[in-house]
Specification:
By secondary structure, this protein is α+β, with helices and mostly antiparallel strands. The protein has 2 domains: 156 residues, no CATH class; 157 residues, 2-Layer Sandwich (Heat Shock Protein 90), CATH 3.30.565.10. 59% of the residues lie in helices and 11% in strands. It contains 9 helices and 5 strands, in the order αααααααβαββαββ. The protein has a 5-stranded mixed β-sheet with strand order 1-2-3-5-4, with helices on one face. α8 runs antiparallel to α9. It is rod-shaped and about 120 Å long. The two termini are 44 Å apart. 28% of the residues are buried.
Length: 360
């Protein structure tokens, strides 16, 4: 298996490595080398400085080109990190040789015959080679670490994406189980009125059609708001009150500042439907339903309370509430909870509690 530094070059070309910072660092090292070598050279410092600065820039260019060397031009068995090492190793003596030959007016023989020039060539080329290789290896190690960190971040991003996709799939599966339950219960409520021959049946059916037109698109809405959910609940309760006008009353209390809170679609409606079906319907004289939401102690509290038959009517049963717990955990996280309890003197209360931060 190849290491990160063996990966084929991608992204910016070799020119991207010639940044202002890298050029400044190379020039600074070239100047430092000239100052360090000046005591053993008879060459004036400005001339020596020009040679070392030129060499520093050539070595930087060689490193950049070697790092981005095309894989097609490199033997498959040769690791990628070897190319910048080879480039710097060749550039140091070649660039120094070119500087000295140019200093002799292009006469190679004059350069070879000049013992002092040969000694200077050896010192400058050797210094450039050692320093250049050390810097090259250091840069390669830093690049390998950066690529390793980038891979870790990429893996984390892919893992988060997969977790999100799994969560969406889970919500869709739970939603699919809820939809038939919700729709069949609603139709059953209207069926009783139709079969009784009530003159109000056409009006109720018309209201039901209007309600379903608004409700069905939201069955697949995973990113709804509390305000949208409350409006859906209001339409449902208006419909149910038409079916039993003398037995059902309700009020909704929602602070305007909470309307934009994230909230799973049909979650609040499940509690309201449960209150009608298990609380109000079994009670001979019906009852009252309160739907409310508050921000308390950093937590979001959303509850449905009815004055129906209470736990005696098995208010805690039903597939809807079982699925709702799973949906809350999937939507808000494991700390979200559904609390159920009896109300005195009679009735039932179902409350969704969302921890701070989860409902944003």
């Amino acid at each position: 298996m190849r290491s990160p530094t063996d990966a084929p070059p991608s992204g910016p070309s070799w020119r991207a490595h010639l940044t202002g910072r890298s050029i400044a660092l190379s020039l600074a090292l070239g100047a430092l080398a000239a100052v360090a070598l000046s005591p053993i050279f008879v060459t004036p410092l400005p001339v020596l400085l020009g040679r070392t600065l030129f060499l520093a820039l050539v070595l930087l260019l060689a490193f950049a080109v070697g790092l981005q060397w095309p894989p097609a031009l490199r033997p498959a068995w040769l690791p990628r990190w070897v190319m910048p090492v080879i480039a710097v190793s060749l550039a140091a003596p070649v660039a120094t040789f070119a500087v000295y030959v140019l200093g002799e007016g292009g006469d190679v023989r004059a350069f070879v015959a000049n013992h002092g020039a040969l000694m200077g060539f050896g010192w400058i080329a050797g210094t450039g080679l050692v320093v250049g290789l050390l810097l090259t290896l250091g840069a390669l190690l830093r690049e390998r670490d950066a690529q390793a960190r980038a891979q870790v971040l990429q893996f984390e991003l892919e893992r988060s994406t997969l977790e999100r996709q799994a969560l969406d799939a889970r919500l869709s599966a739970l939603q699919a189980r809820i939809e038939p339950h919700f729709l069949f219960n609603t139709l059953a409520n209207v069926q009783a009125l139709v079969e009784s021959g009530s003159p109000r049946a056409p009006q109720v059916l018309s209201s039901l059609i209007a309600y379903l037109r608004a409700a069905v698109p939201r069955l697949h809405d995973h990113d709804g708001t509390l305000g949208q959910e409350v409006e859906l609940v209001r339409a449902y309760l208006d419909l149910m009150r038409m079916r039993m006008p003398d037995r059902l009353a309700f009020d909704i209390d929602l602070d305007a500042s909470l309307r934009g809170q994230r909230f799973p679609a049909i979650a609040l409606l499940t509690l309201v439907e449960n209150a009608v079906r298990h609380g109000i319907d079994p009670a001979e004289d019906g009852g009252h339903i309160t739907v409310a939401a508050r921000q308390q102690g950093g937590e979001l509290h959303v509850w449905v309370e009815d004055s129906g038959v209470g736990l005696a009517g098995d208010g805690s049963s039903g597939m809807g509430l079982s699925n709702l717990r799973e949906r809350l955990a999937a939507f808000f996280g494991p700390l979200a909870r559904l609390e159920l309890g009896e109300v005195q003197p009679r009735g039932f209360r179902a409350e969704i509690v969302v921890p701070a931060g989860a409902a944003r």
